[in-house]
Protein 1
Amino acid sequence: MYQKQPKIGILGGGQLGKMLCLASMPWHLEVYILDKKIDYPAAPYCYEFVEGDFSDYDQVVAFGENMDIITIEIEGVNSAALHELKSMGKKVFPDPAFLDMVKDKALQNQFFNKHQLPTTRFSSFESKREFLASIESGDWNLPLVWKSRFEGYDGRGVCIVKTEEDLESIPESKCIVEELISIDKELALIISRNANGQKAIFGAVEMVFEKEANLLDSLLFPADIPQATRSEMRSIASQLVDSIGYRGILAIEFFLDKTGRLLINEMAPRPHNSGHHTIECCITNQYEQLMRTVLNLPPGDTSAIQNGIMFNLLGDKDYTGPAILEGLEEIFSTENVHLHWYGKKETRPYRKMGHVLVAGKNIHLIKQKASELKNKLKVVS
Ligand code: ADP
């Protein structure tokens, strides 16, 4: 495709890394992955898998030195190393400074305020003591939402504080506090922007969460929202990426509150769970879109082909060990149902082992199919 193939390095070799590799195969791209173990999901599908720790400065620099382009499939990477690689002239997506901001919930919310993007009212605290003092002084009243500033992932590090007793279980850490939003729907969309400033936006999805594990339970595409909300989401996303000349792919999660207010919750500068459906439901999928973006190619068409419901195949809460999926027959005997099995060696309680995408034209029918299937599938050991 090119006279000299650019070497594309991805930090992270989980399911998102695997799907990035699969999307880059038709173009025969040279994709290298850095992650801990050769038995991780992306390993069989990349040009070369480098065993190493993406949170370690030296290992990331050593990996990236040999690349032309570096991108991520997870936020928990060593961003100081990415700054170094950028200063060496490597193309790094997202910009390491943007990644630093996203990793810190206080900086992220400040960013939204600075760019006049709608978000929840919040305060940031250096310690639990400072946070408790703000309640004592009446600056903040219960209920509220407490969030650890760093390393929040899949709902850990978030606590809805309703009572004085809830305060006791709050860990000691730098934190932010947000107003408790009366959520009607949790929504998300994915936008991409390349170095030439060309953008493309995927249609909005609606996310439903599994309360016990606080993991995404299912995702509905398209979201069941008014056209005005859809347009507002698109214009917020567009304004956001243009305001900073963003390059890469960005997932933006929103709350739609019960009064119809649209607020940004958070962002992820990488392919995202809320874009799995793009594989079967859109002309271009989010993984191909990232590859186009990092190569500064025009974005692909994000139009929808069909509707879809995605649900995760989570490890059963009672099993740890080699993973078996019960209910394969049901998946393959149901029309327009697509299995994505990530190939993780071991199942653990609530671990994301795969997902199923139920697609079709009639949204009621696919909802029914999805809920029937969900009851019949189980990840055991
Ligand atoms: P994480 O970074 O761990 O994914 P989030 O900030 O997305 O954490 O919060 C996890 C979940 O907690 C959200 O999906 C939502 O259900 C709930 N939540 C977070 N912030 C608020 C808020 N300000 N008001 C109400 N619920 C919230």
Protein 2
Amino acid sequence: MNILVLNCGSSSLKFQLIDSESENVLAKGICERIGIDGRISYAPYNSDKETVFKDMPTHTEAIQYVLDALMNEKSGVIKSLKEVGAVGHRVVHGGEKFTSSVIIDEEVKAAIEECNDLAPLHNPANLLGINACQKLMPDVPMAAVFDTAFHQTMPPKAYMYGLPYEYYEKYRLRRYGFHGTSHSYVSKRAAQLLGKPYDELKTIVCHLGNGASLSAVKYGKCVDTSMGLTPLEGLIMGTRCGDIDPSIIEFIANKENMGISEVMTVLNKESGVYGMSKRLSSDFRDLWKAEEEGNRYAAIALETFCYNVSKYIGSYAAAMNGVDDIVFTAGVGENDFRVREGICGNIEYLGIKFDKEANKVRGEEAVISMPDSKVKLLVIPTNEELAIARETVALISGHSA
Ligand code: AMP
């Protein structure tokens, strides 16, 4: 069965058509500048990417162009919509309501809307995508796969903030965590690669991309994660600040004569390794190049990033009273051997024997610890689209993924 996986943002929409039996990607692409002017990039599996400019006032036109591209006589990969068995939608925030993926119906859509306050930029866009799809493909079943669901197994001691309890009661203000599909996929894959039962392992997943988060997965369940109510908390990221003293917000507002939302823009978009490197770049490739050329701000940003991840790993080993394996994934985690080396050089006390040679891999599955290392280190490319496709198939066929 073919599954259309959709990840809708407010002005963009990423898509993949996946054959669930072979797990091959039949075609993929992105619509950008929805509501502004519009362009669609489309790549079937056997050919290069093509970009065309199209008017896309709303997500409905964008999704119609996706379907047209998939069914195009020359470059399409299917003949009719009957060949789309289901649609899997990535939904960012499921609040406390959704502890797993669900088939979308009116009640589910209303519940997703109730979580809009928790993810004001993302959930409304996800709903736009769902509504547009339902309009264009009314008979195709659809699933919502939530970024937060995997973390819903966290105990209160991991998700409660040290704030007055009534904020939790009134607003469900707590830690939720994100990148759940990736943390789930990668921790399961690590167990497969190690040949160990998932529910017997203590795994730390380091999802290090432009957005970055860690999770502690104990015996197959997430027990802690670094992102919070929003993706701003936790690690220093590409442009997000991660953990800071909350008083800094008032301090910057006063000194720079800014309102709260302006300060929030600084913390989300102008901080992280980008801000620390004096706005040089949020891309780690640029930062390493600058560091080699003697740029001390890039050097400090990179060193701080690695130190920060090492400290989180130490705290998650403590949270689980031990660790069996540590997995690196996402753009930086999969590709950047120097970042992995920087992080692992600081955590030998856990029983890690880092293999410098094996660590030279990029973008492929590998074990990067010595054979006699007590704690195993792995690189596993994440595949959130495949995970969403698997969840969708499992839901519509009535099994758990
Ligand atoms: P993601 O958010 O997972 O797509 O990761 C994107 C980030 O991965 C980019 O901003 C880069 O910082 C990083 N990245 C991608 N490729 C490489 C590479 N070859 N070496 C170092 N960092 C990389």
